[in-house]
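Batch manifest, entry 17 of 40.
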Amino acid sequence: MIFPSFWYRNVLLWAALLPVAGCSPAPLNAPAPAPQPGQGMVWRVSGGKSTLFLAGSFHLLQASDYPLPEPYEIAWRECSHVVMEIPPGEAERPEIAAGMKSLIRLKSGTLAERIAPATWQDLITWAGQTSYSVAALETQPPWMAGLTVAVTTSARLGFKPEHGIERHFTARLTGSGKTTEGLETTLGQLSLFDRVPALQQEAMLRQALTEASTMGETAASLTQAWRSGDTDALHATINASFRDFPELKKLLLDDRHAAWLPRLEVLLQGDRPVMVLVGAGHLCGPGNVVELLREKGYQCEPLKVSAITPAQVPAPTPVKKAA
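Output type: structure tokens
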């Protein structure tokens, strides 16, 4: 999911990276209104041998965003196999964590040497406002510094990975008897940013710094659009974020959708009901995954059900961080 820009796309991974960089963000006193049940973004995909539930995720949410809309619970109850963008728990494996550390650190020089002085000064100002370590920023490539700004700012507003939908369902896998897999690998997903040209990386960093001041308002509007199933509103914000980065949109959205499609078709021809959980930004706008499946002849119907009370759906299960 891209939120408030494309930065939000990989936030489940970034959350694991930030402690490595030395981040302990101070919380902000942001109001958290009680959510309405809503419909969310879940499609029942049919036309194959088995049923596939395609569910839109937010990688960071507030605790007050629970309970999730009922369609997520229906998909969870009816599936026997759960698919996420990356395999649940993979990022916590020591060898994967080591690879991630290598990707988020400059091989030589410092960040200040790779970006304009004005950008570096704005980043230092942001670090002072958030108590983020300047020394940690100095070792990061520009794209990682942008992720740091986005994720740290989100966390201070109460939007945290421990409340994200992937974490919620990953915690519930234990003892459920459900099998699981990922559409991609942790390192493969993260390494996408290394392919972005240096000038675009700095532009992305500047965008993250600019959006930091309005992230709370954007987060609230986007989570409301997700909860109500308003894919048009969600796409409008995502599309605006990519306006100056068409190549990045192709890299992070279009190319990956095409790569996922063969696996989704295999799952649809399998013998077990499947829940596929991907960022909500992949399920709205031209060329989204729902549209691609429809073009292949599958029926994709939004799962809409009656309103429910909070007592009917379990709250998110806390996930212990790896040592």
